Amino acid sequence: MSASDELDGPFEKRFVALGDSFTEGVGDIDPSSPNDCRGWADRVAAQLIANDPSWGYANLAIRGKKLTQVIDEQLETALAMEPTLVTLYAGGNDILRPAVNIDGLMARYRHAVKKLVDTGARVVLFTGFDSAKAPLFNMTRGRTAIYNEHVRKIADDLGTDLVDFWHMKQFQDWRYWDVDRMHLGIAGHTEMAKQVLEVLGETDEIEDPEIDELPPQTLVERTVDHVSWGREHLLPWVKRRVTGRSSGDDMSPKYPELTSRVW
């Protein structure tokens, strides 16, 4: 077996990340990474591998996926990898739809989480972000709160770990976010990686994210900024929703098979 082969298993420990753009890493721009983004999950995986070379990592998340798509398209693939650690976040794209049956969705979510837990893997779930200070998206805050109550109950009932994004108030600072205001930026994904490693109780050697000071803006400058954001980011997002398209159409997972080569 060559040194290159040894980098791709077999692995004693197997971390599989499931979800949508949050877990894929959208906003953490990195042209050297698959799909041109890195993200908190890749950063966690790199730290785990640095701590213990017996780890392998797969990231099946694809941007734009709704909860049922994540379950239908990613769950069985993840189970086949016999994971020892799984992270799952899904449902954010459902919450943003005009109509959504959260209770029905979370019944499917619970069933999927139970299947993961029953493998003996350590499972990590996430609550949704508190959008109280997010223009337009704050209208979905009540839905997210209901979603979060389901997640917390499922985590408690099934004995999973929980990353409580809702209560991480540092993310109310928009310098942690990408210019699209929908995804975490480099600083945000870096901070989230550190939060996940804390929940896992793993050694964290990731440097604190650098947060640049923002120059003060006049009312006119803020208005121009909001208009520009609406034109460049919000309208394309709305158009995709209206036409039934997704930003993840025709995209493949970043790391569809277990590897220790995380860029």
Describe the structure.
- With 263 residues, this protein is an alpha/beta fold.
- The protein has one domain (3-259): SGNH hydrolase (Rossmann fold, 3-Layer(aba) Sandwich), CATH 3.40.50.1110.
- It has nine helices and six strands, in the order αβααβαβααβαβααβ.
- Strands 5-4-3-1-2-6 form a six-stranded mixed beta sheet, with helices on both faces.
- It is globular and about 60 Å long.
- The model is unreliable at 1-5 (pLDDT under 50).
Outline:
The protein has 263 residues and is α/β, with parallel strands linked by helices.
E-strand count:
6
Helix content: 40-55%
What CATH first level would be assigned? Alpha Beta
CATH topology-level name: Rossmann fold
C-alpha Rg (nearest Å): 18 Å
InterPro entries: GDSL_Rv0518-like, SGNH_hydro, SGNH_hydro_sf
Region (Disordered): 244-263
Keywords: Hydrolase
Pfam family, one: Lipase_GDSL_2
Which features would summarize this protein structure in a list?
263 residues; alpha/beta; Rossmann fold; 6-stranded mixed sheet; 9 helices; 11% strand; SGNH/GDSL hydrolase family protein; hydrolase activity; SGNH_hydro_sf; hydrolase
Can you lay out the helices and strands and say which pair or pack?
Layout: H1 3-6, E1 13-19, H2 21-24, H3 40-51, E2 55-59, H4 67-80, E3 85-89, H5 92-95, H6 102-118, E4 122-126, H7 141-158, E5 161-163, H8 186-200, H9 219-243, E6 255-259
Parallel strand pairs: 1-2, 1-3, 3-4, 4-5
Antiparallel strand pairs: 2-6
Helix pairs in contact: 3-8, 4-6, 6-7
